[in-house]
From TrEMBL:
GO biological process: methylglyoxal biosynthetic process
Gene Ontology terms for molecular function: kinase activity; methylglyoxal synthase activity
UniProt key word Methyltransferase: no
Name used for this protein in its record: Diacylglycerol kinase family enzyme
A single cellular component GO annotation: cytosol
Source organism per UniProt: Krasilnikoviella flava
Pfam families: DAGK_cat, YegS_C
């Protein structure tokens, strides 16, 4: 009898414990559901408020760009004609090229945050908007205008660009991240803040010749002749040495190569009608990797130019013995290490001389207003 009594007591205790756990689970579930409903209602209310007042645009504008005043006037006119609220304007500064301004725009209730400037302004605004779900609009008034170029947005007409911002559709695109995990000895990082932080890129990050070309491009010359300034800067590096690079893609084995440049891109169209990464898709969840090499002096560079032009037209060849070549592959993550340090860049912004550069993709992280 004592044994039977002890068994009954144990059973009752177990039932009480199980019932208590069930009650606790129900309480947690109810709280979670209540929070979910509250968040959904808050978001729905924001949507209703936005629809009631109309879309609120916030423009992060680089005042140093030619035509900045025209951008402000056109945006104000288009918003007035569309019966939209008065747009908000935030100017970039030397110590903040647009990230802080874009975050403030979101805090001020903006529905769409517009980057009006060059590639640096676009990258800074994207840094603030990536992962938020809020769309970014583009009014390209820079030198390369790389993202707008790859999204087939208007490049030369501010009114046309504003029309896309107001009446376009939203598209989620991938973003790349790049981090210099090791700088060259005695090298000075060319970025503010933590030099080892991850930098967003929307088009291409590179190490080697391309980054040296970007670092040496004269700002005043860029303002006068546009993207041609990069090619003039690149001419000074045509006879530079090839770099020895160790490259690891995803979880694969590291491979060694002699190269002029290695670029990791989200999309591949460049100024001048050149297509560097013909297979790149801006929302495929992968990065395209291009390894560029030349030998034989100017003859090698001439053959490389022919290769780039041909691949833009859909023509490729894998003939052996080429003295100028560009090889392609894809990866979600790439780590590149070089012997003594090479210049690194993201979307045309130099990072400094790097010994090791890490890059990876964040699929669908940025929403962009497109045509």
């Amino acid at each position: 009898m004592p044994d039977e009594y002890a068994g009954i007591v144990a059973l009752v205790v177990a039932l009480v414990v199980a019932l208590g756990a069930l009650v606790a689970l129900l309480v947690v579930w109810r709280r979670a559901r209540t929070q979910q409903h509250a968040v959904a209602e808050r978001d729905a209310q924001r949507t209703r408020d936005g629809e009631a007042r109309g879309m609120l645009l916030a423009v992060v504008i680089n005042p140093s760009k030619e035509g900045a005043a025209d951008v402000r006037a056109v945006v104000e006119r288009v918003c007035a004609e569309a019966a939209l609220p008065d747009p908000l304007f935030y100017e970039t500064a030397v110590d903040d090229p647009g990230t802080g301004q874009a975050r403030q725009a979101l805090a001020d209730g903006a529905d769409v945050v517009v980057a009006a400037g060059g590639d640096g302004t676009v990258r800074a605004v994207a840094e603030a908007l990536a992962g938020t779900g809020h769309p970014m609009g583009l009014i390209p008034v820079g030198t390369g205008n790389l993202l707008a170029r790859n999204l087939d947005l208007p490049l030369t007409s501010v009114p046309d660009a504003v029309a896309v911002v107001v009446g376009g559709t939203d598209r989620a695109i991938d973003v790349g991240r790049a981090r210099v995990s090791e700088f060259a000895p005695d090298a000075e990082p060319l970025v503010d803040g933590d030099p080892h932080r991850a930098h967003i890129f929307l088009v291409i990050a590179g190490l080697g010749f391309d980054a040296a070309m970007v670092a040496d491009a004269d700002d005043q010359l860029k303002a006068r002749v546009g993207w041609v300034a990069y090619f003039l800067a690149g001419a000074r590096h045509l006879h530079g040495r090839r770099m020895r690079a160790i490259i690891r893609l995803d979880d694969g084995e590291a491979v060694e190569a002699r190269l002029r440049s290695i670029m990791v891109g989200n999309c591949g169209r460049l100024p001048g009608g050149l297509t560097l990464l013909p297979d790149a898709v801006i929302d495929d969840g992968e990065l395209d990797v291009a390894a560029i090499d030349t030998r034989g002096g100017l003859a090698g560079w001439a053959q490389l130019l022919g290769e780039v032009v041909a691949q833009g037209l859909g023509v490729r060849n894998d003939l052996p013995g080429k003295i100028g070549r560009i090889d392609h592959t894809r990866a979600r993550r790439a780590v590149i290490r070089v012997d003594d340090g090479e210049q690194a860049q993201v979307d045309g912004d130099p990072l400094g001389s790097a010994v090791e550069l890490e890059t990876w993709v964040e699929p669908g992280a940025l929403v962009v207003r497109t045509g």
